[in-house]
Specification:
InterPro entries: Erg6_SMT_methyltransf, Methyltransf_11, MeTrfase_SMT, SAM-dependent_MTases_sf, Sterol_MeTrfase_C. The chain is an alpha/beta fold. The protein has 15 helices and seven strands. The protein binds S-adenosylmethionine. The site of S-adenosylmethionine has 22 residues, from helix 7, helix 9 and strand 2.
């Protein structure tokens, strides 16, 4: 396929219609050749755009850095990396500067997430024969059903990303969902997608920190959080805020990122995997399932039930990140797809279509993928520690 396209481009080069002339020209005009390669890679990607997400290669390139000035992206990457263990960073510093660290992370990675994963930025347990996309939707419906959402209710999505789950849950349950997010770039993107999905009259976004929510007490009929409260510097502080804004007698459900009981804090390999996940995913620290449960109870919730859903998943949740796995429907996540994306980002950065530092972002995301897959394989980490909790009637 590649050689056919290369041959087509070759025909359009006016003078050098033989390989040695073309080769000599490559040496003289590397930028022109890189541009041609970029075009080829764009063509290569277009076939997958309709299947995976609305984001194409150019959206990815122009989106790197989010609201950060394009000339500042490289220095933002350097500052972000310095927060983390592999660059000498300390947990306390990450916690003290969580808002800056997490916002830098999402400004840098959001366009990569959307390009590779789609509009919902989370994992899911998966059945055999089910596509990644189907499993992601089912995971969202499960949350809506557990919360017992009813038509017309006011629901809060804590740490809503660009609103993939918010749109799905609002449409599935005919509810009005407010997406709370501290990242302005994601909110801008989410608003566009809400208009596109025609849920902009019933759903909205609020830019704020989930540690200090701008809502009165007892505002919502239900609250959920999908793989988001792991960014909180302190689980108790975050759950306490959720408790405050939830109406008495109503429910809070979440999927938490946690270290499992199999994690040994004295095991060097386990520690390395945890640090890779932290840098690759913008986390101040990863709490254990036990700590989350304790924090929930301490905040005043009654826990209805809780379970690590990874345990019973017929297919492992980390399958899309496993380099030995190939899938056409999630091609961009496979090792070939990642190879193509890596080189495409390199080329786009070289010709100036992607800001300097884009490749470094791709590098730490690759590290994250390795850490997540290793953590999943060793069963020391889960992105789907589920709980359903209620705020007592007289809480
Ligand atoms: C992994 S993404 C998950 C997004 C979304 N729940 C989904 O599944 O698509 C985590 C989200 O939490 C948000 N977030 C992190 N820290 C936050 C904070 N302190 N306040 C509000 N949102 C926060 C991020 O901006 C991001 O949108």
């Amino acid at each position: 396929m590649f050689s056919k396209k290369a041959a087509t481009v070759f025909l359009f080069l006016p003078k050098e219609r033989n390989f040695s002339a073309f080769h000599a020209n490559c040496e003289k005009q590397p930028r022109k050749i890189i541009l041609i390669l970029v075009l080829l890679l764009l063509l290569f990607q277009i076939g997958y755009i309709a299947r995976m997400s609305k984001a194409g290669a150019l959206d990815l390139a122009s989106g790197v850095g989010g609201k950060i000035d394009k000339t500042e992206v490289l220095s933002a990457v350097e500052k972000y990396e310095k927060y983390h263990v592999c660059y000498g960073g300390e947990e306390e510093e990450r916690k003290a500067n969580y808002a800056d660290m997490v916002n830098k992370y999402y400004d840098l990675v959001t366009s990569f997430y959307e390009f590779g994963w789609g509009e919902s930025f989370h994992f899911a347990p998966r059945w055999k024969g089910e596509s990644l996309r189907e499993s992601i939707k089912r995971h969202e419906h499960f949350l809506a059903l557990q919360l017992g959402l009813k038509s017309g209710q006011k629901v809060l999505d804590v740490g809503c990303g660009i609103g993939g789950p918010l749109r799905e849950i609002a449409q599935f349950s005919s509810t009005s969902v407010t997406g709370l997010n501290n990242n302005e770039y994601q909110i801008t993107r989410g608003k566009e997608l809400n208009r596109f999905a025609r849920v902009d009259k019933t759903c909205n976004f609020v830019k704020a920190d989930f540690m200090k929510m701008p809502f009165p007490d007892n505002s919502f009929d239900a609250v959920y959080a999908i793989e988001a409260t792991c960014h909180a510097p302190d689980a108790y502080g975050c759950y306490k805020e959720i408790y405050r804004v939830l109406k008495p007698g109503q429910y809070f459900a979440a999927y938490e990122w946690c270290m499992t009981d199999a994690f040994d804090p004295n095991n060097q390999e386990h520690k390395k995997i945890k640090a890779e996940i932290e840098i690759g995913d913008g986390l101040p620290d990863i709490r254990s399932t036990r700590k989350c449960l304790e924090a929930l109870k301490q905040a005043g919730f009654e826990v209805i039930w809780e379970k690590d859903l990874a345990v019973d998943s017929p297919l492992p949740w980390y399958l899309p990140l496993d380099t030995s796995h190939f899938s056409l429907s999630s091609f961009r996540l496979t090792s070939v797809g990642r190879f193509v994306t890596r080189n495409m980002v390199k080329a786009l950065e070289f010709v100036g279509l992607a800001p300097k530092g884009s490749q470094r972002v791709q590098d730490f995301l690759e590290k994250a993928a390795e850490g997540l897959a290793a953590g999943g394989r060793k069963e020391i980490f889960t992105p789907m520690y589920f709980f359903l909790a209620s705020k007592p009637q007289h809480g």
